Structure formats: C-alpha cells, structure tokens
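Figure S7 source data.
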Amino acid sequence: MSVHLSSCSLNCWDNCGFKVEVENGKVSKIDGNPDHPITKGKICGRGRMLAERTNSPDRLQFPLKKLDGEFKRISWEQALDEISNKLYQYKNEFGSTSVLHSHDYANGGLLKNLDQRFFNCFGGVTELIGSICWGSGIEAQSWDFGDANSHSPHDIVNSKNVIVWGRNAARTNMHLFQQLQQAKRRGTKLIVIDPIYNATAKIAHQHITIKPGMDGLLAAGIMKEMLRMNLEDRDFIAHHSIGFEDVVELLDTITLERISELTEVSIIDITELAKIYGDRPTSTYLGLGMQRYHNGGNTIRWIDALAAISGNVGITGGGANFANKQVGKSFSTSLLSLPEKRKNHRQFTMMEQAKSILTAEDPAIKMMIVTCGNPLTQVPNTNEVKRAFHSVDTVVVIDQYMTDTAELADYVLPTTTVFEEEDVYYSSMYHHYVNYGPKLVDPPGEAKSDLWIWTELARRLGFGDDFDYTREQWIKMGLQSLRDQGITYEKLKEFGHLELKVEDIPWSDYRFKTPSGKYEFTSSAAKQRGYDGKLSFSLPKESEWTNPELAKNFPYQLLTIHPLRSNHSQHYHLFKSEPKVKIEISKDIADKENLKNGDYAVVWNERGEISGYISILEHGVHAKIINIDEGVPAKFGGAVNKLTSSSLSDNGLGSTLYDCLVNIKAAKSHINN
Ligand SMILES: Nc1nc2c(c(=O)[nH]1)N[C@H]1C(S)=C(S)[C@@H](COP(=O)(O)OP(=O)(O)OC[C@H]3O[C@@H](n4cnc5c(=O)[nH]c(N)nc54)[C@H](O)[C@@H]3O)O[C@H]1N2
Ligand SMILES: Nc1nc2c(c(=O)[nH]1)N[C@H]1C(S)=C(S)[C@@H](COP(=O)(O)OP(=O)(O)OC[C@H]3O[C@@H](n4cnc5c(=O)[nH]c(N)nc54)[C@H](O)[C@@H]3O)O[C@H]1N2
Ligand code: SF4
Ligand SMILES: [Mo]
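Tokens for the predicted iron/sulfur cluster complex:
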C-alpha cells in the first residue's frame, strides 16, 4: 500500500487537499491532507466517494457507437477515425461553427482548458458563453469593483460580524462552515439570511427568513436605515466611490414599511442589520443561489453597495465575498488555449443552448461534442434540451459514466478520473491554494484522458503539432505566469500544494478596476454596454407582481438547491440505497394542500412535471417554498430541470433557475400502489 498527496477535482468551493491510498493498483481510500492550510485534513463524502467513482464496475470502459438505437463497442481507431471524418466533413460543407462544444466545469484541472485549444485550432466552433452557475454575480461584482475577488479565508478571524447571505455553507462549502463555527466560539456574531433554515442557519445567532429573490431590496432597506442612523462611511463614499447620489435618490422613493412588506423581513430585523453593518468590520459571504433569478445581478450589486456604504470594503475582516477570480487569472490559460488560432466562431449562451440549437441557421448545428458536463440533467428546461439533442446529426459525449446526456449520444467516449491522469487543480471560488494531482492508477478498460482524445483527433485533423507536448510540458506551460512567484511544476510535485500570491484583502488600496478607478454605485462599464448602470428595485420574473396570472395558477416558488451528498448529478448512482426525489415543502403548503410527510406528490408548471415524496420543513422556511435538490438523474425520477426556465438573468448571461413558479398536489405513487 502506498499513500500519495492529491486533490479533489470536483466543481466546489473548497478544492480540498487529499491523501490517497493505493493498493494493488486501485485507489483504496481517500482522506484529507492534514497539512493543507485551508482544508486541514477534512473532506466531504463527495470527495471520499471519488474512490467509488473511480473503481465502480459501471464506469465506461470502451468507446461506444449507437447502431439501431443500441450502443455497440467499437475500437478507438474506429471511433476517432469516424469522429474526425465527421468533424472534417461538417467543417468543409457547413463551416466549423456547425460544430457545438457543450460543456460545464466538472473538473478543476488546469489541463481541462485544452479543450479550448482543440476547438480553436480546428478553426473555431460554436461555443457557450455565460454561466448557469454564477454569471450574474460575477458581472455584478465586475461592474461594482472591477472584478470579483474575495478575502483570504484566513481573514475571517478579523471579522466582528459575519453575514452568510444565501450561501449553504454547511452543505456546499464545508471549510467556511468550520471557520464559522470557530468564529462563533471566538465571539463573532453570525447572521444567516436565507429562505430556508439550513444547517448553517442552525449555528447562527440569528436566521433571517427572506422571500426568495428579494435580497436586493433588503440590502436597500438596511442602507436606508444606516443613512437614517448616520452609520455610513462618509469618507469612503466621498473619496472612493461614484454614483452615491443615484442610490440616495432611489432610496428616497420607497418606505421602510414597503421594503419590509415586500421582503417579508421585519423592520426590527432590518434596523438590527443596519447596526451590525455599521459595527465594522463586518464580512459578507454571498452565495450563488440568490443570483439565479431574473434580478440576480442587481441583487448582488445591492449587497456590494451595502458593504461599500458601510465601509466594509478593502478593510481586514470585511469584504463582499462572492468568488475569487484572482485565482483562475493567475494561470497562463491562453498559452494553453491559443485563442489566436480561432478563425470563426459563434456564441450561444449556456442557458439558452437548447433553444439556440433548435433555431440555428447559417449554419445549423450538425455536430455536438459534450465534455465535463451533463446538460440533460443540469441545464434548465430538460424537455427542450432533449429536443435539441435529438435534432443534431452527430452527438459525441466524453464522460466517465453513462449519464442522461450520454444516453442520447451517437458516440460515447470513456474518460479518466482525477487519479488516472496528472494535473494541477484550483477553484476560483474560495481559497487561493493550487493542488497537485499525480497519476496514481491506470484507468479501467480502454478509458483515456480528455487530453489523449484531443491529441488523437488533432493528429487526424492535421494539427497534431499543436498537441505534441508531454503532460509535464503542458503543466509547465500553464504555470508559466507563476514562475516569478516560485510556483513551478517541480515544487508543486514536491509539496502537493502551493499558495498563489493574490491579494488577501482585495481593494485595500481603494484602487478599483472600474473605468473610474472608484467603487461604482452606478456602473460606467454597464453604461458603455447600453444599460443605465444604476441600481434598481427589480423583481424576479415569475412573481405575483410581475406575472399575477402565472402566480395564480402556480402559487409556489421552487428552489432547486445543490444536494448534500452528490456533486450535481455525479454521486446519486453510488448511494447505498436508491435515491428518491424528495419534495421539501413549508408547513404552510403542507396544511393548505393537505400533504403529509412521505406522501407522493407531483410538482408542475407549464414546462413540465416531476413527482416525489413529501418532506415537511417545520422551521424557519419561507411560507411559499418548495425545494427539490437538483441533480437527480432521470432513472431515479429526475431531472428537476424539467420545471426550470432557460431565460437569462439581468446581466452576465446568468441563470434564472430558482426564479420558478410551480404548483403541487398529491398523486398516486406508481411504486406504492
Ligand atoms: N454538497 C454539494 N456542494 C457543492 C455542490 C454540490 O452539488 N453539492 N456544488 C458546488 C457548486 S458548482 C456551486 S455553484 C456551489 C453553490 O453553493 P451555494 O451558493 O451555497 O449553494 P446553492 O445550492 O447554489 O444555493 C443555495 C442557497 O441559496 C439559498 N437561496 C436560494 N434563493 C435565495 C434567495 O433568493 N435569497 C437568499 N438569501 N438565499 C437564497 C438557498 O436556500 C440555499 O441555502 O456549491 C458547490 N458545492
Ligand atoms: N435546477 C438546478 N440546476 C442546476 C443548478 C441548480 O442549482 N439547480 N446548479 C447549476 C450549477 S451551479 C452548475 S455548476 C451546473 C453543473 O452542471 P454539470 O457540470 O453538467 O453537472 P455534473 O452533474 O457535475 O456533470 C458533470 C459531468 O462531467 C463528467 N466529468 C467529470 N470529470 C470529467 C472529466 O475530467 N472529463 C469529462 N469529459 N467529463 C467529466 C461527470 O461524469 C458528469 O457526468 O449545474 C447547474 N444546474
Ligand atoms: S467536494 Fe468540495 S468539500 Fe468535498 S472533498 Fe471535494 S473539494 Fe472538498
Ligand atoms: Mo456551480
């Protein structure tokens, strides 16, 4: 048995350091690396289960081709020859943008950026822009500050108060959760603002239940109270910001009573929050859930503005922590991806990929290659996504498992897991350490890395020279920009993880990366793009105010938050007992619809329906909420994205996944009856 340092590869805030045991050529156990400065030996079940994900007999092991509706094993030679011939033909006949690259970010490896290199060298394809995950918040912060940068996780020790605003830390960001527990023991005041009384709310001094999609207005109410009590930071506002007068003008148009009524947060709580923000340093940890609304960007901008007005920007213990884009920007990704090779391209948004495929002309989409994503389960409006996939002549899916998406493919290519290839791993969400992950075991059957697949296809298509590098050379290429910091391939290999030199306290010099160089309450970057750039009192798209007719038929708000034990769709099939769709509802809905725990029910709207078992949330949940965790694959009764909408959020080409009205009723279980 041998033990090796490695990394979690999953799309997650924490990017944990691993200690991996290998026995007889198999990964036998995964633990946390106690020497990792942030993750300190603790990892979650999803990370541990990467052993099962690697060893499972259900792994895809051979290239498959669909013939008469059934998958048949074929050789790599045949798969690569046929796929490269098709790429060549479609490019010749219809142009290279008749090929679509559909993807998400399921693997945090640096070399996963090489898919871009392949498609750029091919001549440029139809690519996806925007983000289902965090698009609106990222753009919101870049309008306000010039970029989306977080404080170092170590800085939390300096905060007097911590507000966790719409981040499900206990479930999604376990090392922040541990820090919150420690902070609380040190006497830090902890407040959670969330429509659900989640596990983070349980440890907080106070949980504030809010009506979903109304957080921007709550931040406005807190600011109004701060101004009334003269708690704002006049110096910051005067010297380091522009556009404050626009905010004041807008705040004057609404009363605190009206804000309280719309957000369903009491005036007492709003006033208390104003005092907390005024009692510096107060740090805000924003989550991603609350920007998955039509008004999501505006929501994040209000919370940024609150942090700014209260003087909590650029100071130790403060911050509006949403993402840490400094991390990803440290690497030489364009050396890897060669954007200059791209001759043609067309862009579809990630959210609207299905609709765009169905309506594409000049050229139509003829071929689609899917990597690091499972759009059939994860992209909104599943029924439309399914129609889109069926409309494309040739679909190639590269994955480790036969997912809902792979089921619809013409070719399925088996790929490696994190322990079967060498790479370095990072996440631009939370901390700024980069981890090394060696190749520890051989992949099963004939599974090959994504990189091997791109290299073989590139050779067949005549640009093999662009892929003629060893793994070590590729990693060194990606780390080139870090050489001056002493971050090298050799050192990463030696130490297992290294600290990137990014700013621990972003904006401490008050030099913002906005066009004015100041914090922008009214965004000039937004103005340049044709928006008015001002904050507004915008609302979700599906609500009683914006669409009363819809709200009459579909009176409840559906959240589809991230599952505890799975990373999206990736772990459900490994659970000991078969997963079921759990429909969590408030006590009020249970009473109104006469539903009890364990009842079978159907949730529906105009886009689709999904059935599952009722679980009543007894405490602290907003009265009109239904939650169904996302990610459940079709074979277990999913996907909940049959119900969600593919419309875009207000900025950043983000998603509106939680901006979703539904109805619910008891149903007959096909299992029990
Ligand atoms: N266990 C687990 N962890 C994960 C993942 C996973 O799949 N499973 N996925 C990873 C990824 S890709 C991401 S993006 C992150 C996401 O991390 P989070 O942002 O923590 O998680 P989400 O599930 O996106 O957001 C859900 C939280 O937002 C709250 N919320 C929803 N609507 C609103 C609202 O209008 N206002 C407020 N205040 N709160 C609201 C929900 O009640 C919930 O607590 O998690 C990462 N970590
Ligand atoms: N309703 C609803 N939908 C959501 C969300 C929500 O909150 N609610 N959250 C959204 C968010 S935040 C995100 S980030 C997306 C995530 O969306 P996805 O990334 O599509 O979700 P996963 O289920 O993680 O699927 C990733 C797939 O990539 C495969 N994979 C893993 N590693 C590799 C690799 O190295 N190479 C290749 N080729 N494949 C690999 C996995 O086996 C898996 O099938 O989902 C979004 N969808
Ligand atoms: S999924 Fe996240 S918390 Fe779990 S081991 Fe991986 S990086 Fe750590
Ligand atoms: Mo995400």
